[in-house]
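Notebook, p. 212. Picked up where the previous page left off. The plan for this session was modest: take the two constructs that came back from the sequencing core last week, fold each one, and keep the raw output in the notebook itself so nobody has to go hunting through shared drives later. Recording the first one now, exactly as returned: residue sequence, then the structure token string.
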Amino acid sequence: MSSFSLYLIGFVIFIAGLAYGAFLLGIATTWIAVGAFTLFGLGMVIGVGKTRARDESPASD
């Protein structure tokens, strides 16, 4: 399993916990969905940035 997959699974669990807490606080389901989708998109962007392979610059001799 790749680092990105593990990161995304952890982030989805984090979002689920926040969504459940928001539900218990009585926040409207529409706003919970908006927040969850926004956080999921943000998590994907951050995950790609943290796990992508870095380009190696050529060594100067």
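Okay, moving on. Second construct, recorded in the same format:
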Amino acid sequence: MTTKKLEMHQKTSLTNLYFNRFLAIRYSTAFFLFINLYWFVFLGGSLSIVAFLPLSILVLAILTMYEQIKLYRIHNNRLPYAKALYSALSVICIVLLISVNTSLFHLFFPFFKNTQYVLNSVMVVLTASLLINFLLLKKIKKIELNKDKSFQRIQAYQQVIN
């Protein structure tokens, strides 16, 4: 391999390592984007007043995706939109968990029957979502402090190629 090709390969590898640092955030953002898109469509079909909740999450998710796309060219460890998205999702999950066993359940989920099986299923999904959100917020914090494992791999790779 020529020196120019080797340098280009190393630069591309480094760019991909930086970009892959945010892989879990990208996939989770896409997952929550589609979950909230479906929730928004169902709430819109039910003419529910709380349709603004998933709509606001959709806007934050789109901004987070834009932020993630920019990270391919600009290596940055600040993720303000991702932090805002997962903080907002955490708050919404907590509010929804509280509302599950109240009369507000039908306001947030008018398309579900109010049976114990449905309530338990919704609680499991919301609890899992809340756990994912907290783990992602923890990951974002580590990335901002450059204490994530991916950053350590990037530093090790840079030492090898330099």
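Notes on construct two before I forget. The radius of gyration is 20 Å.
Flagging for discussion at group meeting.
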